[in-house]
Amino acid sequence: MTIMRPEMDVITEQIRAVPPGDRQAQMRSKKELYGLFAKYQCSPFRSFVGPLANIGVFVPMFFGLQKMGDYHVPGARPPSRPPSRL
């Protein structure tokens, strides 16, 4: 997206300059923007694919680690406590 940023800034300024009631001009500007994404084969939604793919791993792992302290593991010793000073 860094390569297409200057062209995208020009188009977004055109979109902002269009009066709110002019739907035709807004549609033309948005089509130019979509054409720019197609030209550089870039999709703004691709940045969501990685986190969405990983959520299926991290959510169960989070809940599993959260419940891990509730289970007794044979052979595991409780943490040693320092001697009390009475």
Summarize the structure.
This protein has 86 residues and is mainly α. It has helices spanning 5-17, 23-39, 49-67. The radius of gyration is 27 Å and the shape is rod-shaped.
Q: Explain this structure to me?
A:
The protein has one domain. It has three helices and no strands. The relative contact order is 0.09. The model has no long low-confidence stretch (mean pLDDT 84). α1 runs antiparallel to α2. It is an all-alpha fold. The N and C termini lie far apart (67 Å). It is rod-shaped, with a radius of gyration of 27 Å.
Per-chain topology:
Blueprint: H1 5-17, H2 23-39, H3 49-67
Question: Which key phrases capture this entry?
Answer:
single chain; 86 residues; mainly alpha; 3 helices; 0% strand
Evaluate the radius of gyration.
27 Å
Encode the helix/strand succession as letters.
HHH
The helix content, as a percent range, equals: 55-70%
Mean pLDDT: 84
**Could you say which overall geometry the principal axes of the C-alpha atoms support?**
rod-shaped
The residue ranges in which pLDDT falls below 50 over 5 or more consecutive positions are none
Number of domains: 1
Give the termini distance in whole angstroms: 67 Å
| Helix/sheet category | mainly alpha
Number of DSSP helices? 3
The percentage of residues in β strands lies in under 5%
Number of strands: 0
Largest sheet: none
